[in-house]
Design a protein that fits this description.
The chain is of the alpha/beta class. It has one domain: Rossmann fold. It contains six helices and 13 strands. Strands 1, 4, 5, 6, 7, 8, 9, 10 and 11 form a nine-stranded mixed sheet that branches. Strands 2-3 form a two-stranded antiparallel ribbon. A two-stranded antiparallel ribbon has the order 12-13.
Length: about 210
């Protein structure tokens, strides 16, 4: 598997609005929601379909519908901001939640919440997180999802760096990664530069 960086003017424009430090919590949240919705087209291009017989106003016809159960797993907190934009297009999607935080001394991911649908083993799972920095949290969450039985997993992020991409690919070469933008790198505190700042704090107005 590999990684994809989306190249679309609307995504670039809305991401620029999110990056600006003066952007309000309301506008940050709205743009995140809209970008996630735009990304949904790329994210879902390989979902399996099945043919079914339907009745149109004029005739019977064989048409296609999605045959896989879609499961969204936002990484708390910031990943929650990507759920609604995708779910607007896939209203039947189930939602799991995994909470991890980064230990500021060891930089390791520490789990504090894990609630996944019972059907995750057979689902098409999208792990959602606006930021892919070191890849530690994403890799840990994918570990947890695989431990629950998931086999088809995609990691969806707004902004990422090569260090994080390579870290996830090293541990999970079977997982596709989709980004809205590839940034320059990490600073001494392992924050993405130029990045978005702390996506969770900006999304929920906690700082």
């Amino acid at each position: 598997m590999g990684f994809t960086v989306l190249d679309h003017p609307l995504i670039k424009h809305k991401l620029t609005m999110m990056r600006k430090k003066e952007t309000s919590t309301k506008d940050f949240r709205q743009n995140l929601d809209e970008i996630a919705g735009l990304m949904a087209y790329e994210i879902t291009k390989d979902i399996e379909t099945q043919k079914i017989l339907i009745e149109t106003p004029l005739a019977q016809s064989m048409q296609e519908r999605i045959s896989e159960e879609i499961i969204l797993v936002p990484i708390l907190r910031a990943g929650l901001g990507m759920v609604d934009g995708i779910r607007q297009l896939i209203p039947t999607a189930k939602i799991g939640h995994i909470g991890v935080y980064r230990d500021e001394e060891t930089f390791e991911a520490v789990e504090y919440f894990n609630k996944l649908p019972d059907t995750i083993a057979d689902g098409y799972v999208m792990v959602l997180d606006p930021m892919l920095a070191t890849g530690v949290s994403a890799s840990a969450v994918i570990d947890m999802i695989k431990a629950a039985g998931a086999k088809k997993i995609k990691l969806v992020c707004l902004v990422g760096v090569m260090q994080g991409i390579e870290a996830v690919q090293l541990k999970h070469p079977d997982v596709d990664i989709v980004l809205a933008a590839l940034d320059e790198g990490l600073n001494e505190k392992n924050y993405i530069v130029p990045g978005l700042g702390d996506a969770g704090d900006r999304l929920f107005g906690t700082k």
